[in-house]
Fold:
Amino acid sequence: MKMDLITSLYVFMLAGFIGFEVIRRVSPLLHTPLMSLTNALDAIAVVGAILLVGAHKSRLSTILGTIAIVAATSNVVGGFMITDRMLKMFKSSRPQKP
Amino acid sequence: MNLMPSNGLLLEITYLIATALFILSLMWMSSPKTARHGVWAGELGMLLAVGGTLLDRGILDYKWIAIALVLGTIIGVPLGRVHMTAVPQRTALSHAFGALCVTLVGTSEFYLRSPDIPPFVMAVLGLEVILGSLTFTGSLMASGKLQEILPQRPITYKGQNVVNLGVLAIAVGLAIFLVIHPDRTHLFPLIVGIPLLFGVLMIIPIGGADMPTVISLLNSYAGLSAAAMGFVLNSKLLIVAGALDGASGFILSVNMSKAMNRSFSNVLFGAFGQEQAAVAGGAEARSVRSATAEEAAAILAAANKVVIVPGYGMAVAQAQHKVRELYDALTKRGVDVKFGIHPVAGRMPGHMNVLLAEADIPYDKLLDMDEINGEFPQTDVALVIGANDVTNPAARSDHASPIYGMPILDVDKARTVMVIKRSMSPGFAGIDNPLYYLDKTLMLFGDAKSFVNAIVRELHGDGQS
Structure:
């Protein structure tokens, strides 16, 4: 358990640094789709909710977990959809190379 | 609960690939050329992670999972098809959903594991539900204000910050107490409930113009709460996704607070919308020069280089498609037209770019503040549509101005400035704009959409004769 914790802290720290470096490079043009995309990725929390409901440990956990899956799934579906819709609209004035 | 599943290694590798895809996804967002690959990478990562999880042997009952996935999709599809002007409230709503998921899973985990929860797990669990529940109600409130279901007017009272921070401190204190005494399970509802209240209190003093900062901040909180959930469930994938989201929201909040000249601590503690104190002085009648659409069209047609500065007023007037027609008409005459976009234009970071891209304006003509400011001295006409404070030269020169120090678009350096505005009433901060009284400034009084339309008709009429 102790080792897990330390490993997790390392993962969090490294992911934080990667996040800063990667996000800093995102063009301000795309900050709105960036937010909807990170929101969709964040909904990976659905995995935790699925395991919770699947394990069927208690009635409370099943009910709360089911609502959690609904909420996260709507973010996954809606988030990716709207991000792609927005990105499709960004067109260059220079002719694209085929 | 052990989320290191029984058919462990394969699933762990699937999660590892998903994690890599998530990072790639954000890397590809760096340019509009590759950004759609980013969405596909994210989708693939999500598909792998969710698919792999569903095949996990630890899952005994699929009924509720299936129902929930279908319901979530039914809710998600319309949320993916909202109008582009509604994207800020949609985004706030999705922060609320994300936070709801995290809070509910955290709550279940607590009741499944208590009373013997190791101190560290209890600490991150506390963090998870506190951040999750304040983000849930905070985002719902923000979404309601943006959708104009709730009154947009900021509500402030004396000692508001003290009350808010006090409420939050109680929740944090109780969480710390639970870390030491995890058997006092009856306290747990309070560390969910109090932050729910705090989320509401936090957004009450927020006005529309502060929304870009608030949405970014809530985005960051949602990410951090998900990362905390990753610690509780020992899921590295979730820790990474949460950390990426948290970092993204954090960077955007810092950008927004810089663009509004607020200190970051001012933003962090939710002390938004405080400085609206009436600065009505100096409103003595000074003369302005106004012009008709015909005159404006003649000046624009004679220009070599035009920079259009759109603000939220343009979006409110739904003028972006007319602005595109103006862009087309001028470009056809050989005028170089660019757009100068302030970071806080619109109701969330980057909102204005999306609205203009939707109107089919090529993205390489959309320049952010740092890129465009060097070009104003060579610009013949700067056309301001529905923007006010972000063009106020007092922010550069007048130490007494409440917006002194705020980075602005230097439209006053252009040879001629035209401002489309309904009337002389000041902007959200109630600050008079000296730009309007310059000799080089022409005021075009009227509704943004119909005025731009009138200019376009003049330009066309001229061309056909």
Remarks:
- Chain A touches chain B through 83 residues (CB under 8 Å).
- Chain A has four helices and no strands.
- Residues 2-89 of chain A form one domain.
- The helical segments of chain A are 2-24, 31-42, 46-55, 59-89.
